[in-house]
Amino acid sequence: MGAGLRNNSKEAERIVSSLQRAASLKLALAEDPMPIIAVVEACDTAIRAGNKLLFCGNGGSASDSQHLATELLIRLRGSVVRNSWPALSLTLDASALTAAGNDFGFDEVFARPLSGLGRAGDVLFGITTSGRSPSVVRALQVGREMGITTVGLLGGDGGAARALCDYALLVPDFETMRIQECHIALGHIILELLEDRLIGADR
């Protein structure tokens, strides 16, 4: 019997365990939907006032930032016809990121462009699974100083980012993979509800 077949039962158990853990974390977030609704309200208010949503994060959270910004700017659901709404991922511009990192230090790679692109009334999503990413923490700090509404998609105990967020959505776990799975689910839920609200405004 090959090694793959011998390990099959253990791998199956691991798959079931991982999926159960992912589901249990999402259900934990469902226990109190009001913080999520509060974020939707803040985003709705910002866009109706002519402001925008901004996103930042590192690594996998950088991908989530681009993913969510794109779905607002272009489209979330293929069956929905609606306008494009203003959203920007601060992770996209390699020239700006590397210049900020080289000239000001990596902690400033999001804060520096935010200081030029953001304005009071915008909403900034800082995505960090630990709540301790210095570049995201610094962006949230600068955002607050500018009068930007700050939202954290966080994990664990929320780290230093938690105190800098007007709205903190905290995944109660310390495993990066599981937190990231919840972050993108939260992002999709927020954008789905926001899309439903703004379609009415477009009409």
TrEMBL record:
One of its GO terms (molecular function) is carbohydrate derivative binding. One of its GO terms (biological process) is carbohydrate derivative metabolic process. InterPro entries: GmhA/DiaA (IPR035461), SIS_dom (IPR001347), SIS_dom_sf (IPR046348), SIS_GmhA/DiaA_subfam (IPR050099). Keywords: Isomerase. It comes from the Bacteria. Residues 43-203 form the SIS domain. Pfam families: SIS_2 (PF13580). CDD domains: SIS_GmhA. PANTHER family: DNAA INITIATOR-ASSOCIATING PROTEIN DIAA, SEDOHEPTULOSE 7-PHOSPHATE ISOMERASE / DNAA INITIATOR-ASSOCIATING FACTOR FOR REPLICATION INITIATION. This is D-sedoheptulose 7-phosphate isomerase. It comes from Acidiphilium rubrum. The lineage of its organism: Bacteria, Pseudomonadati, Pseudomonadota, Alphaproteobacteria, Acetobacterales.
